Amino acid sequence: MIEHLHPRIIENKDWATALFVLTFAVVAMTKSAYETRFTEFSKLIFSDKYAKIYRDNSHMKSSFTVGLFFVQVISFAFFIQLTMNTFGNASKTDWVLFIQIATFLLYFILAKYLVEKIVAASFNIDDFVELFNLQKVTYRTYIGVLILPINAILFYYDNIPTIVPLAIIGISLCISLYSYFISIKTYQNVIIGKLFYFILYLCALEIAPYYFLYYWITKGSA
Q: Can you tell me the distance from the alpha carbon of 179 to that of 39, in angstroms, rounded to the nearest whole number?
């Protein structure tokens, strides 16, 4: 008696494995090239020493920042796709979707940065916004590096509880709010002098883009 044979569907995870290896390699090389700086960077959530030492605008375009920016984009793209998979809106092994998410994140971050520079020039607060951006990039990169190993674990783990991505989002938001607190505390003298422009800047470029992004995502998945 010949039993009915069903084709076994094998999910292709090779692309994800290659990306995880690449991003961990970038982190390792960055740590090796900037050992002291990376050590201070790893303590960012416990101390603001790193933010005080590396607060010059020149650090925005350093290989340390650029390398970890790449890690940040890959890490956030993985996390978004894993979260969508957890809530049944996407497959975590869909590499085309991953490229779309990573590309969107890259353009969103860069476009937001360019708009911020234009607005800063209009409000005559260029120097402050450059420093403020460096602070944001630093803490955002820290979050990206922090959740990278978590992404690697969750990617190869089936049936992820919904509480896991929600907890990660909650912790990430807390770290982001903490970064704003540190930035305001560090540059309070500049902010007080241009308080009106700072409030406009926050509303237009720090709250509105994320609100519309959240609305677009929730509207699209509804």
A: 18
- C-alpha span between 138 and 136 (Å, rounded): 5
CA atoms within 13 A on the CB side of 113: 14
Query: What number of residues does the chain have?
Result: 222
Token code pair at residue 95: 């590499």
- Its pTM stands at 0.84
Measured N-to-C along each axis, helices 14-33 and 35-42 cross at an angle, to the nearest 10 degrees, of 110
**CA pair distance 194, 220, nearest whole angstrom:** 38
DSSP 4: P
Tokens of 40: 């201070």
44: which DSSP letter?
T
In the block, tokens 């790449």 appear at 70
Q: SS3 helix, strand, coil % of the chain, rounded to 5? A: 80, 0, 20
Q: Are 25 and 68 in contact (CB under 8 A)?
A: no
pLDDT in tens, 44-90: 888 778 877 777 666 667 888 889 999 999 999 999 999 989 988 88
